[in-house]
């Protein structure tokens, strides 16, 4: 395959991945606790290709330097916190994630838009039950209170449990799940986080930044498309000239 075509086509695929990521950010701009994503592009190092024979390596050539999508990273900086005055809403101030039990599987989220299931347990939508230090938290009604340290008390002031809020030094080990949820294959550390009842953290997506990034991607995509057309014309001309010879 013509190297120019290959390089340009790879660049177009990268821009398409970037565009998909920006579109997903914009689609979740009002999703509570959502963390924006960004594509990281890296260049393959120039590497030697070897023929291995009798435990000896003989260099036989080099590989081309092209760009490729390395990974999609997530930004976990604090988003704006808005007061809702809804007793079931809880926002984390600073680092940390709520732990949610989904059929025995622990998921992580910054979304504190909770509700109560039929058995009186605090839950996150259709995901699962909110975990405390001693397991799922049963509040029975929406008249419970959460202090700034995450301690949960019933309407009479009796201590029920404390919200399980965890974090990690390496956010790169978290794997993204649908609906702003994450999973971790490594042990998480309990946090002495500060929380705010009656408030919700929004998305950390900035619409202006994302729209600017989208315009940049569209310009890059168009430039690569034009380059492909130029390469095609050059190849056509070369083939015609060789044909005349």
* Strands, count: 21
- Distance from N terminus to C terminus (CA atoms, Å) equals 23 Å
Strand percentage lies at 35-45%
Number of helices: 2
Radius of gyration: 26 Å
Shape: elongated
Order of SSEs, N→C? Answer: HEEEEEEEEEEEEEEEEEEEEEH
Summed over residues and divided by their number, the pLDDT gives a mean of 83
Overall SS class: alpha+beta
Give a quick account of the main beta sheet: strands, pairing sense, barrel closure. 8 strands, antiparallel
Low-pLDDT sequence parts: 44-55
Q: How many separate domains make up the residues?
A: 2
Helical proportion? 25-40%
Summarize the structure in words.
This protein has two domains: 3-76 and 205-244, no CATH class; 81-201, no CATH class. Helix 1 (3-27) packs antiparallel against helix 2. It is an alpha+beta fold. Strands 7, 8, 9, 10, 11, 12, 16 and 19 form an eight-stranded antiparallel sheet that branches. The chain has a three-stranded antiparallel sheet with strand order 13-14-15, with no helix packed on it. The protein has two helices and 21 strands. Helices cover 26% and strands 36% of the residues.
Give descriptors for this structure.
alpha+beta; elongated; eight-stranded antiparallel β-sheet; 2 domains; 245 residues; three-stranded antiparallel β-sheet
């Amino acid at each position: 395959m013509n190297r120019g075509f290959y390089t340009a086509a790879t660049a177009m695929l990268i821009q398409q991945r970037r565009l998909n990521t920006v579109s997903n950010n914009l689609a979740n701009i009002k999703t509570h606790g959502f963390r924006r994503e960004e594509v990281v592009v890296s260049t393959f190092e120039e590497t030697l290709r070897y023929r291995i024979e009798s435990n000896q390596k003989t260099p036989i050539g080099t590989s081309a330097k092209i760009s490729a999508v390395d990974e999609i990273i997530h930004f976990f900086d604090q988003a704006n916190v808005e007061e809702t005055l809804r007793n079931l809403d809880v926002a984390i101030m600073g680092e940390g994630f709520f732990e949610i039990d989904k059929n025995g599987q622990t998921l992580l989220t910054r979304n504190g838009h909770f509700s109560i299931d039929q058995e009186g347990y605090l839950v996150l939508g259709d995901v699962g039950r909110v975990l405390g230090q001693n397991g799922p938290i049963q509040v029975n009604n929406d008249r419970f209170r959460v202090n700034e340290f995450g301690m949960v008390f019933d309407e009479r002031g009796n201590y029920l449990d404390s919200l399980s809020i965890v974090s990690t030094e390496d956010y790169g080990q978290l794997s993204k799940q649908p609906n702003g949820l994450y999973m971790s294959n490594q042990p998480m550390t309990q946090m002495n986080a500060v929380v705010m009842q009656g408030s919700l953290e929004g998305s950390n997506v900035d619409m202006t930044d994302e729209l600017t990034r989208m315009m940049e991607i569209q310009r890059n995509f168009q430039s690569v498309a034009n380059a492909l057309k130029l390469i095609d014309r050059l190849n056509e001309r070369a083939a015609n000239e060789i044909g005349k010879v």
